## 1
Amino acid sequence: MTFSTVDRVMADQRAAAFATRSIKTEAKVAGLRMALSMVDLTTLEGADSPEKVRALCRKAITPDPFDESVPSAAAVCVYPTLVGVAREALRGTSINVASVATGFPSGQYPLEVRLDDVRRAIEAGANEIDMVISRGALLSGDEDRIRHEVASTKDVCVSTGEGAHLKVILETGELSTYDNVRMASEIAIDAGLTEYDFIKTSTGKVAPAATMGVTLVMLETVRDHFLKTGVRIGVKPAGGIRKAKQALHYLVMVKETLGDDWLTPELFRFGASGLSNDLLRQLRWKREGVYSAGWDQTVS
Amino acid sequence: MTNRLSVTKTHKLLIGGAFVRSESGRSIETTDASGMPAHLCQASRKDLRNAVEAARGAFGGWSGRTAYNRAQILYRLAEMMEGRADELRAATIEKAPATRAPAKRTAKKSSKKKTSKKTIARRTPAPKVHEFDEVELAIDRLVAFAGWADKYEQVIGGKNPVAGPFYNFTSPEPTGVTMVVAPDTPPLLGLVSLIAPALCCGCTVVALASEASPIPACLLGELCETSDVPAGVLNILTGFRAELVHHISVHRDIDAVLAANLDEESGAMLRSGAGENLKRVTVKKLTPRQWRDPDECETPALIERVVEMKTIWHPMAT
């Protein structure tokens, strides 16, 4: 099987150009609110406790207690053991519960264990699964293994309970080249992703995490797949997006690469923990002309 | 004799340890020490925001240092000022008006050419010339507060008598990010007198330089960068008070304001900021004599304006 190649210099150049668009006043407010509605509020620490997850869920429901018109987050993303807590805290809302699974973040476990991880997370209440691929296999040329693990995980997502959308984490920070990112994206998509499944840049545990460049490569893979098949796959950059301005740059890139159809939480997400605070701070500035203090905001 | 054109310096803002241009791209016309037209950055609301962020980021590290180490660093800054005293002196007097008598008096000390009409700062009224060497006084003031760094706590904190089986004591802690609005005059002594109390106790500072004579503040910023002052601990903006005081007043991440010799309106606006986030606002009005007076300007009473008092009740076995 052959894969498309990517001109790194031109991809970076193109990605950098999106950061030069000037977005001000009403368009900026609309963009900030849209970005907020696309956030997967994430906590993936060994020290995560049920109460921390509950706090995050409360924040996902009402990001700004002083302005209830601010949209809710798209999902709360946690480790499998905390899925039940999140599901309970989000009962009665339309906010999704996402769980990392398949031996996150390394994926270096037997496939049966990883699939069982997925099954349990869905049974505990997750309706979105963020899986990791075996980067080592990809780098050593074992594409079939990636294809097999994505297909198997997709099967479990479809056949367990009420099912779950699948997000495939490529961990682009470990893939070295844009060609590899393109190849991993194509393998993941062709392995059986269906409409509203995602490809995702990073676990957040490896630097560099999401960059404009790799996200552009992934968006273009999604575009080519859509033009070929008519199926819309989502994209989720995760890790390293902390500023509202960065989020707006990403939205510009989505719009100019995939069009307005993708400007929805069903097809574009930000995996982030700090980003929402900066979005809220900017929205408050627009609303009240006041910059918030650190203690005005939640810790995550 | 050559026809060489001297290379004049571009003074920039000091934010987070970096010398940056205003994000707005705006500049203020002025004249440099040699009488050449020069440009300074005109800080914007967003520059202020960035500076406050930098100061907030540096607060933990600066306040977490030992008082003794902060004293060393402030003393080091004084050493650097001493080494460039002539340059600072030239900058503080070059903005003097061309009125003869005082100009002569100050010119004597710098042995520079007389000030002339050309050197009056444009757009802002010329300040009075000081009949004292404000550079020496500023250096001494910094040394005084370097000394206070590990002593003020004993003076303004203390053990409180309580009617019960408790040991009760109060100790001051730095409040956080302090905004300093320097007076037009004396530009250097006024600035140093306001930043030193905040820096010595562990606050980080964003300072808005004298509008009439901003260059001494820019030079002080350069000295900071060669005297172990960590990035973000002292940030220096040049610009117009009228543009920035409102934003200073409503910024919720500024914990205290130290200002002096402002017009009524600006002072009132800064004070109203206390209603926004309970920031501690101090607006002083000092005469040249008072700026020189150690009893007025070298007391821990100024430090008290930028600290929070923490009182602890400790159960004591009797």
## 2
Amino acid sequence: MSQAQLEIQVIAVLVAVACALPGVFLVLRRAAMLSDAISHSILLGIVVAYFAVRDLSSPILVLAATATGVLTVWLVEALTRTRLVRNDAATGLVFPTLFAIAVILIARYARTLHLDTDSVLLGELAFAPFHRFEVLGRDLGPVSAWVMGSILLLNVLFIGLFYKELKLATFDPEFAAAQGFAPGLLHYALMTLVSMTAVGAFDAVGSVLVVALMIAPAATALLLSHRLSVVLVLAVATAAISALIGYWVAHALDASIAGSMSTTCGAFFLATYLFAPTVGLLAQVRRRQQQRMEFALKMLAVHLAQHERHPEEAVENRPEHLVEHIRWTGDFARRVVRRALSDELVTLQSGRLFLTEKGRALASESIVQGA
Amino acid sequence: MSGALENVGSIWDLLTSPILRTVALGSGLLGAVSGALGCFALLRRQSLVGDAVSHAALPGIALAFLLTGTKSSFGLVLGAALAGWVAMVFVLAIVRTTRLDENTALGIVLATFFGFGLVLLTFIQRLPNANQAGLDTYLFGQAATMLHEDVLLLGAGGALLLGLVVMFWKEFKLVSFDREFAATVGYPVQRIELLLTLLLVAAIVLGLRTVGVVLMSAMIVAPAAAARQWTHHTGMMVLLGAIFGCAAGVAGAVASSVVPHLPTGPTIVLVATSWAIVSLFVGAKRGILWQWLRLRMLQKRLAEEAILVGLYELAQVHGGERHGHTEGALRALSPNLLRVRRRLRELEQRELVEETSRGAWALTAKGQSQAQQIVEKAQEKR
């Protein structure tokens, strides 16, 4: 592994972790798509600030871009408050407008600018190590690593210091307001953080990956745990591992690192969504099948008990009859009977089903429950 | 003078050129289709679906190219539509089976599909024999390179989509407004919703090449949001959405061909969103401007009434009706009163109050009777 490769991975992990932390709160506040809006509209801030200072490396650009991100959130909220459009439409109006203005400004007035629109969307992590941070002639590593490291530190500090407040304002904003926590202020502080993180990450990974890194690890973690602290840790871990795997996949395919990182995040989410214990899709399906079978067994027991020692019993307790009477498909009826036999709820004697003691107990229990 | 004339002449030439006609026609068609279908998305609170689908279409485009090696519009559009549809199925499944909300599901699908598309695109770029030039036009769109073939595709696809909207008009309308009711009456709500989503995906995918991934979502939202401000009637709204979208498409295409270095996609989007914002301010009765004006009038009337009643009560306390009172006394009575002096001058002009001495005010006879009426009305209400 070369020095550059190592540096790219360090930056990738820093970006991923820095994004995942505020992402958890975005997802919890059901405002995930704000990250998409912010990560696009910050371009306008960068362009406008560039026209003012004519220097692409000026920190003013970062400030202006962060401010534009916060402005986007404010605009969306102001539009929603008019009640003329709903939140989704407000978001869909605000950020494409700002983004379109930025693209037009670049195309018309800044074609010589080193800001081609492709790299805005896509970013290029592979170039990050070329930009060095030097103090007094000493090379201290790539600039991106320092920038993202500082942003990560800020995120950790903010969440650490205001953990209790954030938690309360996220889960119960009314109570938080009643306690005098100023949820609005906290909300905007969080949005400033999201915006700043997006600005920092944008250079390296482009606007779309910012969205992937903010939302996907957080969502994955939320599927796995209900405890905020555990969710934060899981999100950070997923993001960091996705960053590393993503890097090596991109390396193998000679493809975009940013794209590969988001794909890996998505793959982690998909795997969790399908296979997670209890909440995963497979677990849900299995549980539903199990419930259906349990219910069917009860129904079979009740059915047999109803007709026990009645003249029609000879007809009603034939397995073939179940299809007709309870409207089960033949296949399902056979499975229920097989299961009932193996659970010793019924016995099969010359083509007729008879309840065992256990089966009779289940039937009477079910009837009592039903009544 | 002759220079200006020449300029006009060359602009005229440009406006009548077959290239611009193709581009304007294509953009107009695209605007009309996305404007009409966007209305349903807006009504169903799914405006951000456009954003997700347009991003999610990227891997479909790349895969279609990888598998078929063709850059023909039709093949790529098919791939894009398939990917967009799979993305929507994912979103619906995630929302239905987890506790994550729709925003989160959209965000995940949008970003990860797009990321995967990016991996494929960069992978294709590095294949030795692949001429992939033109695939990345889907990112930002390139209306200027629209061909006759593309316009035909847009026209045929658009006509099909709009035809389906007309055919299923009643169903779409019902599902957009009252899903529960539609389900109760026995409509196959899920299937109708799926069809509606499918049409939306198709509209988005048709437009991708013109305005690009990022901005396509605005073509779904903006004309619909504008149309919503002018009418309460669904049929009218869909019609207006189509008209606004079409107008934005044509205007954007023309503007970008007349003004140098004005990219078409972003210009179309800017026209559409600007009109949406104008509509938000001045649209029908609900516009922000009208709301604000109504609020101001109401505030003014309340302030006037408070002053009249204040002076009336002060006069009652002091017995003598001609006794003047200062602004300070009025403010003490109702501390929230704003611009007291201006209100007093206005009331003076209407001969309801008069300045008895410098800075001291009293009701005129007319003002007195009006104040009395207000007080009586308030007591009646109580």
